[in-house]
Amino acid sequence: MSEKMRALVLDAPGGPEVLQVRDIAKAKIERPQDVLIKVVAAGINPADWQNRKSGQRPDPNAVAGSPTILGIDGVGVVEDIGDAVDNVSIGDEVWYIDGGYPGNPGSYAEYKVVQGAYVARKPKNLDFVQAAALPVVGLTAWEAVFDKGMVKPGDHVLVHGGAGGLGHIAIQYLSAIGARTATTVSSEAKADLALKLGADLAIRYRMEDVGSALKSWSGKEGADVVFDFVGHDNFARSFGHVAPYGRLVNTVVSNWPSGGNGFAEWRNLDISFVNIGLPQIARDHQRRLRQIRVLDEISERADQGTLRAHIDRVVSFDGVGDAQRALEDGETLGRVVLKI
């Protein structure tokens, strides 16, 4: 058996050109609680290009000078398990969210080691590529909609970026709850996807005033809950889209609005954030186990046919750089997947 594996690595932060396909030492089990996974596919997520550009802060236990392997989630087949692992067996088809930053290699590689407790069985009715499109966006949208948004049936909800990776999953959760959902999109193709997945209104933000369209649709001063999956300048604009006593949930690092908190305080807005990576970085075992339980719920919905990811494109190692650029520029519809 080869002691090498193919991986997409970077030695320093930068643009897509820093990504290099290289033969490196094959990942292997070193602790009894670990699982060795032969990676079949991995999601290409915004966090990947952000980590590529910034370098991200390294794990305190990182080996100095070791290359970084991006890819914060993946799907594959269990090839080996440590003596303490009892929740999966060799040959199981699994998915996970783990690594992708300096010191903890991600899934842009043929093999990946993950602690067994943080591995779950992938949906039975999805192939590997279909499944790889779900873990990060499924979990992030879940925490936004159910944990922070606390959406109720009949609520008027605005999803910014409804045809993006997070937005098109959130729309499906909201439809299942019975919420009334509006979304912002930049093209007719994106509007068609959002409406097909359950949105009631698609606002073409380049041609329409979002605030006016939202008020006309909802019959109130804004939405009960606003999900900002776009961030950056859109975060500040989103404050004006929330009705008094409403909630704004953000998932993207963004600048605060200028001029203080007077507007939000006057309208009694509840503002919150989602960062699914913190339990991993903070080594918060209980919160990571809770995330695994959510992945199991997502898997069940996928197997029931009530949740699906729209896949924009599937690429090999050589296509990851261009795919990350397209993702960063907002050119993709739904998800992008790396097939190993």
Short structural summary:
This protein is 30% helix and 27% strand. The protein has helices at 46-54, 128-132, 135-148, 165-177, 188-196, 210-218, 233-238, 262-266, 278-281, 285-304, 320-328; strands at residues 4-10, 20-25, 34-44, 68-69, 73-81, 93-97, 111-115, 119-121, 156-160, 180-185, 201-204, 223-228, 242-250, 270-273, 311-315, 335-339.
Descriptive labels:
340 residues; alpha/beta; Quinone Oxidoreductase, Chain A, domain 1; Rossmann fold; six-stranded parallel beta sheet; 11 helices; 30% helix; globular
Distance between the termini: 18 Å
Order of SSEs, N→C? EEEHEEEEEHHEHEHEHEHEHEHHEHE
How much beta, percentage-wise? 25-35%
How does the overall form come out from the CA principal axes? globular
Largest sheet, in brief, is: 7 strands, mixed
Low-confidence segments: none
Query: Which CATH class of the largest domain is shown?
Result: Alpha Beta
Here the CATH topology of the largest domain equals Quinone Oxidoreductase, Chain A, domain 1
Secondary-structure class: alpha/beta
Work out the number of β strands.
Answer: 16
The Rg value, from CA coordinates, equals 20 Å
Number of domains: 2
Mean pLDDT figure: 95
- Please tally the helical runs, counting DSSP H or I stretches of 4 or more residues: 11
Percentage of residues assigned to helices: 25-40%
Please state the second-level CATH architecture of the largest domain. Alpha-Beta Complex
The CATH superfamily of the largest domain appears as Medium-chain alcohol dehydrogenases, catalytic domain
